[in-house]
What we know:
The complex is a heterodimer of chains A (494) and B (495). Chain A is mostly helical and 494 residues long. Chain A has helices at 4-21, 26-50, 79-98, 105-123, 127-136, 138-148, 153-186, 193-196, 203-220, 230-236, 239-264, 266-271, 273-293, 297-318, 321-352, 363-366, 368-382, 388-403, 405-429, 436-440, 448-466, 472-493; strands at residues 58-66, 71-77.
Amino acid sequence: xxxxxxxxxxxxxxAAIILGAIRADIRSLKIGxxxxxxxxxxxxxxxxxxxxxxxxxxxxxTLPWISSAxxxxxxxxxxxxxxxxxxxxxxxxxxxxxxxxxxxxxxxYNMMLLQTGVSGAILSLDLILFxxxxxxxxxxxxIMIGKxxxxxxxxxxxxxxxxxxxxxxxxxxxxLYLGHIYFETFGVxxxxxxxxxxxxxxxxxxxxxxAGFLLAFAIKIPLLGFHTWMAPAYASSPTPAVIILxxxxxxxxxxxxxxxxxxxxxxxxxxxxxxxxxxxxxxxxYYAIKAVTEDNLRRxxxxxxxSHLSLIALGVILSNSYAWSGSLYFIATHALASAGIFLxxxxxxxxxxxxxxxxxxxxAQRLPRFTFFFAFFALSIAGLPGTGxxxxxxxxxxxxxxxxxxxxxxxxxxxLLAMLYIFWMLQRTLFGxxxxxxxxxxxxxxxxxxLLMLTPLVIMxxxxxxxxxxxxxxxxxxxxxxxxxxxxLLTGIK
Amino acid sequence: MRDLLYASPMAVxxxxxxxxxxxxxxxxxxxxxxxxxxxxxxxxLILQIYTFDKGNSTYLFESAFGKTFxxxxxxxxxxxxxxxxxxxxxxxxxxxxxxxNYFNGEYFAIILFSVFGMMMLSHSNELVSSFIAxxxxxxxxxxxxxxxxxxxxxxxxxxxxxxxxSLAGALFMLGVALIYGAVGSTLFSDITIYIKNTNIDEMNLxxxxxxxxxxxxxxxxxxxxxxxxxxxxxxGAPSPITMFMASTFKISVFALAxxxxxxxxxxINEFWIEILQAVTIATLIGGSLLAISQQRIKRMLAASSxxxxxxxxxxxxxxxxxxxxxxxxxxxxxxxxxxxSVGAFGIISFLSSQEQFDLTYNDFKGFAERRPYMALLxxxxxxxxxxxxxxxxxxxKFNIFTSSIESGQIFITALGITTAFISVYYYFKLIAVMYFxxxxxxxxxxxxxxxxxxxxxxxxxxxxxxIGTNLILNIPGADSFINIAQDAISSLKNK
Lengths: 494, 495
């Protein structure tokens, strides 16, 4: 099983190619897609059994790829990528269940390609390989929004494409420059992360290189100022694409800062920490206020997710053990919760043909099970005690207090604001008098398939909330070891 | 006898041209002419492949021609591209020739003449013969551009091209004369010796001459500000000719430019750096601005070919600044651009014979539903031209940009990456209109014939050139594309 990571990455796309080549009909396409996600699920299960939390990089595999240009196929797994990989693996089957009525073939092919792109980006440790997957996961999103989206989708697809590629191109420039410096120093080309992290660079050079990477990651997250694509893209994407955007791709931005930032230009990150903290905090509060004012549920949760991702970014940049554990934990729990809430918004639209808060109301009187799940996911977004989000937010806020009192207060404020908009939204949609939209539709309560898709998410969220001790042993050694790596720098600068 | 073998690919080409010329009075069907010319081209291709590893760095018929024509891998690689490019042009357009009534037998003879001219150009090691070769190739292209006699745009394009092209040709001749005045010989090797032994302050005549020649080369490859003909000519020419020009003729000029500036003028290359850089910046920006504003796909591809010229110019100035890999990266980019543009223009001319529309962006609305496979192939070529990773175009840009970073041109690299970003807009716009709109469910199956199989093959090359590895036994991967480029360049230097 030494190639297990390769199988995890390529199973979906190979399934897609085979299905495309035999011109599978829609039924076999669905079965094939689900089967590929199940295979990946079991492979990841195998990984989690054999995963050793006390080691850093595991299951790594290096193969020559295009050797004269210095590209190598280098993949590996540590606790950080393990968390991200598991949420991808866990979320794909529910998404396929959500899509079971979808009979447009392109939808399914795009989702399979997307899974390959995302897991490839998570697992690759060669910068060019990473760039390849980073771009690969953009294409299906572009097609999904542009072809299957709603309301101004063509325009919004082009917008997200151009903005993210702007980031990618600046990252590409930095990657090329790094490779060139390696070539100057050692006389051979290499884009391997291990090789490149050994380079010692001048501060000016590193700052420019870091800026190139950070622009790409900031757009993906999106941090404040790099976010103009966010709300339109969330509003016009089909539900599965929204979930991938908020639950996985946005996290990859934070992952990028973590993985590449701390191994390639940690001094710069530490040096510019105050500015990044500033952007993250302002963003957190700004997005929360925007979320209060939004009437469209999709857009509201887009801003909510922006706010929470800024919190994750804050945790990543604060680099103390609380903040880091919290961020890593939040990456997983927020992914589950936002997948849940966007699935519920999708179901809301399927039932009532509207997702405007002002058009909804009184759902609780008609659909009790629906109400329970909707409220549960919304509250776990807000960090209800007992769900994973609470533990994560608490840890990050503790980390923030540890760093500075004011930052702690401000990050706690954003969590309080989240409570505000979530409760207000719940009150206007679920409770109150039965609205005319709700009265006239013959909407049924959740059926068994929908329950099958939502229950695992609920269980996972409760499990992470009630028994965090089940999961922390997996991530703690990683956090401590990587903090050890940068502690000399932290103290050195102070 | 040995020389005869090395000369045979060119000989087959010229014999083929004359044979076609003679039989063009027999009123055979166009299909017949097409098959005959492809047969000659293929024969030449087989001979080229057979002699590819033989007799490198020898002169052709040295007793008769002296050092005028040279045989090296560099030239042979270009020959391969010209031949393959023209075979693809003819085969992909079999349908086009059937449907248009203005073609006749001479047309195929002219194509062979033009290929012969280009091959001569790549082998030429002397200024006068390269001028003649260039003119053989261009005169044929002028004729081909205006081949649609009754279409105004076609004649207009030809006139524009002839007038501007002759001016450029005259400048080249003047340059040759000045260099002859300075050196006393037109052989590249004599020029090299002269440059090595003379102080740069004392060779004004040569510098002026070489600069004039450079202007001609810039004109032929469509660099800004010598680009005023490109878009109109590409648009006005019959689609197969547009494909022929983009895939072969443009590349042939680089054969001359590389040989001249890499070997003969290499000691004084730094003299041109600033001019080259200025032209590069103008070309990148100007080409991008032109490309964004186009509505027709053919014009967009023509304008974007200017941007691709810009990337190659980046490599050219990196060569002058002494980047080691710059020359081979330019060579690789030529291969990459060749493959992708043959595909893209091939699809355009394939479609223009089949569909009754103007090929604007709007005409492509819903194309993915009408012809899913064609749309997929088109997207692959667009991705490659835009330099998206996992295509050969990405590797091409990667090589260009790394060598330009190596030569210290940070600003130009950043500009190159910016224009690559802009190019995403106009290439992806096509992908967007193809996929984002629905159309009447008019599902056409992909007709499996020569044209589509070849386009498929090119798309395969695009992907394989971008991600292929040597891990799969017996199948050369992307590495070997790079190796071929490096071999070709080193064969040029070792003399």
